[in-house]
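User: I'm curious whether this sequence folds into something compact or stays loose and floppy. Could you predict its structure so I can see for myself?
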Amino acid sequence: MEKEIEKTIEKEIVKDIGKEVDHSEIEVSVIFPTYNEAENIIPLIQRTQQALVNHSKEIIIVDDNSPDLTWKIAEDLNSFDVKVIRRLEDRGLVKSISNAIKEAKGKYVVWMDADQSMPPELIPRMLQKFNNYDIVVGSRYAKGGKDKRPLLRVVSSRFINVFTNIILNFNVLDYDSGFIAAKKDLLENITLSDSAYGEYCIEFLYAAGKKGYKIKEVGYPFVDRRAGQSKTADTLSGLFKYGMLYLKRIIELRFKKI
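Assistant: Here's the prediction. I'll summarize afterward.
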């Protein structure tokens, strides 16, 4: 199944070859929030550039002043379509994404992890869905999706998403995806709430659904990070701690007026 999905992604890229690209306005802004991703940042940028070779784009690296100089490595590429935001104060995942969204000039905005666990090659397929939808989610659990991380991580993530659907609704299978594409004007109406991990994504998608925005999931194979160290807990106690944060946020959402 994974090979079939990867072939489909490749076909979507090939299908666009030869089309003229209008650079008078930026079609898509791709945001990568980073912290100590020196080993991943160059191949990730190159993969994104290749995937969107026939789309007008900007790639925004929003970095929380990484000690491994991720921000400098990205800057030193001197690529015309790469913008680097180095954040020295008030740092954090959601604050970084929100900062980059404000700076984004694209008609559509995509944000995703910077550890190469999520394929930028999926973005062209996601963009095609905007004819009928307002938000597109790169999904591990929709048709064609797969979570290929260690079993403990898979089980904990599955539990969170099943619990979310039971408490909130069954409109989204991968509520804490973190791989999101949305219309820029929509993001002016729904702000991202700060969170320790991926709880913000659950609230964002739930709020969008409540406001009547149409959401589409596109399945893909989610893999473990290619290089570097994970920012989230991999131990049973660590997963329990972050899981409790998720459950608390989900229950609060159930009774929150949106």
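Summary: The domain at 2-254 is CATH 3.90.550.10 (Spore Coat Polysaccharide Biosynthesis Protein SpsA; Chain A). The chain is about 40% helix and 15% strand.
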